[in-house]
Amino acid sequence: MKIGYLGPKGTFSEEAVIKYTQGVENCEVVEFNTIPEVINCISNSLCEEAVIPIENSIEGSVNIAVDMLINDANGIMIKGEVIIPISHCLISDAPVEFKDVHCILSHQQAIAQCREYISKKFPNAEVKATDSTAQAVLGVKSKPGVVAIGPERAAVIYGMRIIDRNIQDVKENYTRFLILSQKDWVVTGKDKTSIVFSVPNVPGSLYNALGVLANKKINMTKIESRPSRKKLGEYVFWVDIEGHREDEIVKDALEELKGRTDFLKVLGSYPKFK
Ligand SMILES: O=C(O)C(=O)Cc1ccccc1
Questions:
Q1: How does the average pLDDT of the chain come out, rounded?
Q2: Which protein residues are within 6 Å of ligand 1, measured from CB?
């Protein structure tokens, strides 16, 4: 089985893939350069599964991933989730003093998770976004004064130096990754279901929709709104609930929700990460 992820080797996404595939045989991992390419590897059948970062405890959602799953990813379902701790290092090719650092490279999520550190230690450095943290680590090769923010593992793989460790603004830092496929997962009894929907622009419509869950005592573990991209001030809601879409109570709730929403898409049911 082929599993797509955001490469090159050494990204946090690769760490998530390693955690996900522990004990699973016959997996071949396939690197892609950007998150959209990783998501598209399912629709164009390059891979059977894909692992993408979806939300971080400091920075919140990875908007590109959320928006593609809401708007573009027809035929893609969520079949699992993995959560990993994230510790960022400051990485360079050769020894460097902080005062000589003039450019910082990293993935936009990593930059955001280290925003206070960057502005305190390097108020004048240029900050450049790369497609992944490992790409940033590759980018410091033979570049005096250029540093990357990324995983220790990437520094080790590419033979770079670690200048500082654990530099994220909140030390306890976690990212949740989703496992995508053409099908979601079977009932396990400890499941979650992700849905997205929009409601009519009338008083109480969101309250009405969420009331279905409240009435059936279905616990909600996440709610997020994203722009509908059709009109300013119009939103689509992403809601995670406990239970599997094939559980009787969830099935009934989804049926009822159809009547109280303009648009409803079930992204998949999958076992909760332990
Ligand atoms: O670039 C990476 O290493 C990724 O996998 C994306 C990312 C970046 C920062 C925190 C978590 C995931």
A1: 97
A2: 6, 11-13, 53, 56, 86, 107, 109-110, 132-134, 175
Which residue CA neighbors atom 10 of ligand 1 most closely?
110
pLDDT of residue 160: 98
Report pLDDT for 253: 98
Residue 171 or residue 74, greater confidence: 171
* 146-150: strand order across its sheet: 126-130, 103-107, 146-150, 89-92, 161-164
Token duo for residue 65: 């991933």
DSSP H or E run through 3 = strand 2-6
Q: Give the residue whose CA is nearest to atom 3 of ligand 1.
A: 11
Question: pLDDT value at position 73?
Answer: 78
- Give the residue, out of 9, 107, 111, with the most ligand 1 atoms within 8 A of its beta carbon, to mutate for a pocket test: 107
Please tell me the pTM assigned to this model: 0.96
Asked if ipTM goes beyond 0.90, one says: yes
In the chain the domains, ranked by start, together with CATH numbers, are 2-86+174-181 (3.40.190.10), 89-164 (3.40.190.10), 191-271 (3.30.70.260)
In this structure, are residues 252 and 93 in contact, taking their beta carbons and an 8 Å threshold? no
Q: For residue 62, report the distance from its CA to the centre of ligand 1, in Å.
A: 10
The answer to whether residues 238 and 70 touch, using CB atoms and an 8 Å cutoff, is yes
Determine the distance separating the centroid of ligand 1 and the alpha carbon of 12, expressed in angstroms. Answer: 5
Average pLDDT over residues 105-118: 98
